[in-house]
Specification:
The longest helix is centred in the last third of the chain and has 21 residues. The chain is globular and about 65 Å long. It has one domain: TIM Barrel. The chain is an alpha/beta fold and about 325 residues long. About 35% of the residues are buried. Helix 5 runs parallel beside helix 6 and helix 10 packs parallel to helix 11. It has 11 helices and 10 strands. Helix 7 links the parallel strand 8 and strand 9. The strands form 2 sheets. It has an 8-stranded parallel beta barrel, surrounded by 6 helices. Strands 3-4 form a two-stranded antiparallel sheet.
């Protein structure tokens, strides 16, 4: 079932969460251990992230460096199909622009379609750690809107190869990312909204937000989206703060603000466990306020951990 169909049929706020694929060499049981504690809360769907190749350098005798290209978390398509087959829960694999040509992307989309997966989250993706700026592959999609257009074309039966006989249309439900606190590369909030509107006009069916810790940022973002004609569901994405170093790491990595009230409470904590519990309590409060406001889904970023998400879900679902 499509994400939008889940939303249309629901009489209350739905629960969903995001998972990282296992590291290369790990078994499916590794990710199953993250899923099982959350099944009792009836997730409507599960997102699976995609990761492009990384560059590593080996120091050779004599001090020379040898470059290696590695993909540490392969298998998004396989993991997605395994989860949907084994649990019966709909999955939302992520597809990114970085590291992929349009042909490779089309082939992945065909695989997903054959596997009965009809939900996607389409993202440009971040540049590798070794690059300051995002650089698309030759004949790759440069922006998320280009990826949306490619999937929308496939939904119309328009493939990269012209003149295909019996070019059957796919039927993907397209999700895209939204940024309540502005994408870090956007010139200003208004231009960021214009870019988001372009993704919607290109065929996006719903929006999932970057994490935020102040619900007013989400409410203001939704209001601004509606004002420029974005009328598709806007799903809030949440992540509980779990360690003191995240006061710096989260703003640096995800370009989000930590509210002064939360930061002050973290500074008062005397142990790692108390910070962990504070993050859960803050996220529970966020979740309850968002549910009261009638959001369609609460989507949680697990970052490879599920215990804190389980405690939050138990308190609010």
């Amino acid at each position: 079932m499509k994400v939008t169909e889940h939303i249309q049929k629901a009489s209350k706020t739905l629960f969903s969460f995001e998972l990282l694929p296992p590291l290369k060499g790990e078994q499916f049981s590794h990710i199953q251990d993250k899923i099982n504690p959350l099944l009792e809360f009836n997730p409507a769907y599960i997102n699976i992230t995609y990761h492009q190749e990384e560059i590593e350098y080996e120091t050779l005798p004599g001090g020379l460096l040898k470059k290696h290209t590695v993909r540490k978390r392969p298998g998004t398509v396989g993991i997605s199909s395994a989860i949907q087959y084994k649990t019966g829960i709909d999955v939302v694999p992520h597809l990114i622009c970085g590291g992929f040509t349009r042909e490779i992307t089309e082939n992945a989309l065909i695989d997903l379609y054959f596997l009965g997966i009809d939900n996607l989250l389409l993202l440009r993706g971040d540049p590798p750690a070794t690059q300051k700026y995002f650089v698309p592959e030759p004949d790759g999609n440069a922006f998320a809107v280009d990826l949306v257009k490619q999937v929308s074309n496939l939904n119309k039966g328009i493939y990269l190869e012209e003149g295909l006989e019996n070019a059957h249309p796919t039927n993907f439900c397209i999700g895209v990312a939204g940024y309540p606190e502005k994408h870090p590369e956007a010139a200003n909030p208004q231009s960021d909204l214009i870019n988001l509107k372009a993704k919607v006009d290109a065929g996006a069916d719903y929006i999932v937000t970057q994490m935020f810790f102040d619900n007013q940022k989400y409410f203001d973002f939704v209001k601004s989206c509606r004002a420029i004609g974005i009328d598709i569901p806007i799903i809030p994405g949440l992540k509980p703060l779990s360690a003191k170093n995240q006061l710096v790491a989260l703003p640096q990595t995800f370009h989000v603000d930590i509210p002064q009230g939360l930061a002050k409470e973290v500074q008062k904590c005397k142990s790692k466990q108390s910070i962990y519990e504070l993050g859960i309590a803050w996220s529970i409060a966020q979740s309850k306020e968002l549910i009261a406001a009638g959001v369609p889904v609460l989507h949680y970023y697990t970052m490879g951990k599920s215990d804190n998400i389980r405690q939050i879900a138990k308190a609010v679902f």
